[in-house]
Amino acid sequence: MPKPATERFERDLQYYKFCAYGFLKDLRFFDPFMVLMFLDKGLSYVQIGGLYAVREVLINVMEIPSGVMADALGRRRTMIASFLAYIASFMVFYLARGYAVLIAAMAVFAFGDAFRTGTHKAMIFDYLKLKGWADQKTHYYGHTRSWSQRGAALSSLIAAALVIWRGEYRIVFLFTLIPYVLDLFLMMSYPAALDGPRRAARLAGDSTGASGAGGSVADEFKQVMRAFGSSFKDLFVLRAISNQALYTGYYKATKDYLQPLLAGLALGLPVFLSWGERERAALVVGLAYFCLYLATSYASRSAGRFSERFDSLARPLNLTLLIGVGLGLASGLSYGLGALAPAALLYVGIYVIENLRKPMGIAYVTELMNQDALATALSAESQAETLFAAVIAMGLGFAADRLGPGLGLAACSAACLALAALLRLPERPAAAA
Question: Over the stretch 405-418, which tens digit does the pLDDT of each residue have?
Answer without folding.
Answer: 899 999 999 999 99
